[in-house]
Amino acid sequence: MITLWRALGSLKLAFWLLIGATASLFTGSLYANQDYSFFSTLNETPLHIWLAAHIKSDFDIIWWLPVLFIFMTLLGFNIFVCALNRMIRLLKKRKKMAGNRFFVKLMPSIIHFLFLVIITGHFITFTLGSWQRTPLNIGETVYIGEKPVAMTVQSIKHQYFPEHSGLRGRVEQMQVVLTDERGRELPLSFLKPVSFDGTMLQLDMRPNKQKAVDQPPLQIDGKDINEYCNKAHIYHVQPQKADKQLTLLSINDPGLYLILWAFTAILILMTWYFVSVAAARSKAKHF
After folding, report:
1. What is 130-147 written as a DSSP string?
2. Beta strands of 90-198 (E only): which ranges?
3. SS3 state at 149
4. At what angle do helices 99-128 and 64-92 cross, to 10 degrees?
5. How far apart are CA 22 and CA 108, in angstroms?
6. pLDDT tens by residue, 33-76
């Protein structure tokens, strides 16, 4: 048991785990570039549900994802063991150190524990988070919140760039007003998320994708045959315009607040750490 504990806390193991995780991420990026639309479905689907749906049929292109999570899980254990071992060693020397110096020495271990909290928050988001898209049309009813509340799309207003702008005629902002049964209003705008009953709401635009239409083969004159490189069949593909649908994106992210709390704590503690180290060095120079 002691041998296993020492192995998990090895810096050499941390190095190879980082190499393995980096290689897995790089491999995954290559697969994602080849089939972005397939992997983009992972953005709004809980991880375990997405893997269960594709692990058998598409294992040849998603194998790197379970491998990545194995590396990251082992890395999490490695960080925990390393930080805990260092903290135990410092606690044994606590009486020989001044209070401020002890906490300065202890700070890297605390930062590592907070980093593990951030990783845990992301894991919670990937597995327990939910994303729901609802089309928005004036007069229609949408249901939002953890305990679904019926709200009516009261208005959709477009704000355009001014005429003197190089972007004149284009939409600068879109504002949507939802009302509940009591007539209370909930205004929404692009890039301005709103929290409602434990759910984050934001506006988004999704194209209504339509397939291109193949027209009959073009009639090519003999003098133009070289221009088409002697292709046996030349089709004229006329893509249709994709109309965009305004949607309401409802996000329930239980890991978000854990991530924000830990990240804020890291920023505060690191600021205090570097200020304390700089002050100690400055004091040492004067003596």
Report:
1. EEEEEE--TT-EEEETTT
2. 130-135, 141-144, 149-160, 171-179, 185-189, 194-196
3. strand
4. 160
5. 23
6. 988 888 888 888 888 899 999 999 999 999 999 999 999 999 99
Q: Where are the domains of the chain?
A: 2-129+256-286, 132-211+238-252
- Residue length of the chain: 287
User: For the residues 207-219, what does the mean pLDDT come to?
Assistant: 50
Specify the pTM. 0.72
Mean pLDDT, to the nearest integer, of 11-19?
92
What's the gap between Cα 162 and its chain centre? Answer: 34
Measured CA to CA, the distance from residue 47 to residue 131 in angstroms comes to: 12
* Residue 151, CA atoms < 13 Å, CB-side half-sphere: 25
Angle 143-148-149 from CA coordinates, rounded to 5°: 70
- Residue 172 pLDDT level (bands cut at 50, 70, 90): confident
Which residue(s) pair with 142 in the sheet? 151
C-alpha 240/C-alpha 101 separation (Å) is 68
Helix, strand, or coil here: 38?
Answer: helix
Strand partners, 194: 201
**What's the pLDDT score for residue 235?**
39
Say if CB 52 and CB 109 are below 8 A apart.
no
Nearest residue to 175 via CA among 196, 160, 190, 195: 190
Among 120-134, 161-175, 272-286, top mean pLDDT goes to: 120-134
- In angstroms, the first-to-last Cα distance of the chain is 48
